[in-house]
Amino acid sequence: MMLYADLIVTNARVYSMEVEGEHTESFAIKDGRILAIGAYVKIDELKGPDTAIYDADSKAVLPAFIESHAHPLDFAKKQLELDLRPRMTPNREAIIQAIKQEVAKKQKGEWIIGAGWDENLMEGKRFVTMADLDEIAPEHPVFLLRTCVHNAMVNTKAFELSEIALDANDPEGGSFERDESGTLTGYVMEDAMSVFKTPTYSIEDTKRAWKIAEEIFLSWGIATINDMATGKEEFKVYQQLQKENRLRLNVGMWLWGRTQMSRTGLQEEITTLGIESGFGNEQLNVQGIKFMIDGSVGGKTAAVAEPFEGTANNYGIVYLKQSELNDRFKKAIQNNLRISVHAIGERALEMALQAFEYAEIQKYPHIERHRIEHAILPTEDHLKRMQKLSIIAGSSIGFLYSIGDGYVNNLGHERVKRAFPHQKFKAYGIVAPGNSDLPVTEGNPFLGVYTAVTRTTSSGTKTDRSESLSVYDALCAYMIDAAYGNFDEHKRGTLTVGKKADFMVVSHDPFVVQEEQLKDIQVIATYVEGVEQYRVGEEVKV
Ligand SMILES: [Zn+2]
Prior knowledge:
Elements: E1 7-10, E2 13-14, E3 26-30, E4 33-38, H1 40-43, E5 52-55, E6 60-63, E7 65-70, H2 72-78, E8 82-83, H3 92-105, E9 112-117, H4 130-136, E10 142-146, E11 151-154, H5 156-161, E12 174-178, E13 184-190, H6 203-219, E14 222-230, H7 232-243, E15 250-256, H8 267-273, E16 284-292, H9 322-334, E17 338-343, H10 346-358, E18 371-374, H11 380-388, E19 392-395, H12 398-402, H13 404-417, H14 422-427, H15 445-454, H16 471-477, H17 480-485, E20 503-506, E21 523-528, E22 531-535
Parallel strand pairs: 1-5, 2-6, 7-14, 8-9, 9-10, 14-15, 15-16, 16-17, 17-18, 18-19
Antiparallel strand pairs: 1-3, 3-4, 6-20, 10-11, 11-13, 12-13, 20-21, 21-22
Helix pairs in contact: 2-6, 6-7, 9-10, 15-16
The chain binds zinc ion.
Residues 69, 71, 228, 437 line the site of zinc ion.
């Protein structure tokens, strides 16, 4: 009996991404996998009476993106809050309008939570006041977190429902700002924010939020995403979503190892239970365990070798001692868990490599492909040792687009030259999947591809191009290289016969457009295992 295709994609510029520069016109899918790929005359033979045909209208078709490092549920929860970033609400009036809409939607007494505002980037450099909020939301408690996440603006109802008297003393480690007459301004700082009884999200809330977030990921062409800080709550949410048939993406989970950054560490529990890398199924599985050594460049807390620009002796911070890291790595390896470790500055990279060396990872060849996350400022010596130990660089090249200006300010142009060293990774044979660390930066992989090629920030600042990649290599960082990072290179990452039919149709051919336009490419449709999961222009219902 003839084996007919379920779906044939035709009249397309199909980039299998197996070989640079090659494309063909069609491919056929059967049972979620690629059955054949090539010229239409050949593929047409697989057309049966029930075969669906997708005419791609000469558009480019590529493997779907694989996001190698993100925090998908943090991003999801943000979808439940008002987005008050200056590009969404550029002035005071826009903020008032947004809150009025929430008031109309919500019951009296229900919290209105917003985040992301920055008066410095708003027209007139003016944010809303407590008096404004009291006027438009007298019956709704309002809590608006500033972009720095250290301060917030609240209204009188928020004080009332949190049972904080208007003449209360400042709580320890924080303060309620007051004007000259001693009246509250509504601006609350640091630990004073934690006395407000803002709602926490239930598992059900988070699952609802996932639906919105998942649609956004699919609209960016993402079919597989790695959750780099999976805790107990995240683990539950993903399990339930899958059980309830509500998970459309593939999710790789990296269990959070050590208590820090207000996340509870699970290494002891994971070890006691005996969970190993690979546990789960093709759609949802445990990739490994995640640790974190230093901070960030934006916060001047990454453990750098030379002080941050404009400081005499700020070398950043490390969160833990070498001896503890060594012990944790050894224990993880002995329990068959792959290790992923956040290390941005040179001093953190040195600690990470020393711990890998201490744990003698070469002696455990069945647990390989350990990762250094971000891996932003490796020295030549670090690169050699990464090569020797076959360590993957989870490169957050997306940072250079979204927060690249902060990198230039805090590191200086000279140091940014050797940050995200993709050409060096390539020369050393170090696999370097790209990522955005969403919601730390914007999650659209085309922005990462754009900056990997152009080394240009979102404001247009051009940095040195000696580490810039070709369009092909930049795309591979979010496709086959990321698949390798998940042990999925035989399943995903290229459009190859036998692999999963995870692909996207895009508005402009990335190999034809001017490099400046790479960031503007839109996804028209995203397919996961041969099933259309996203089509531009369709509204998501929640
Ligand atoms: Zn992260």
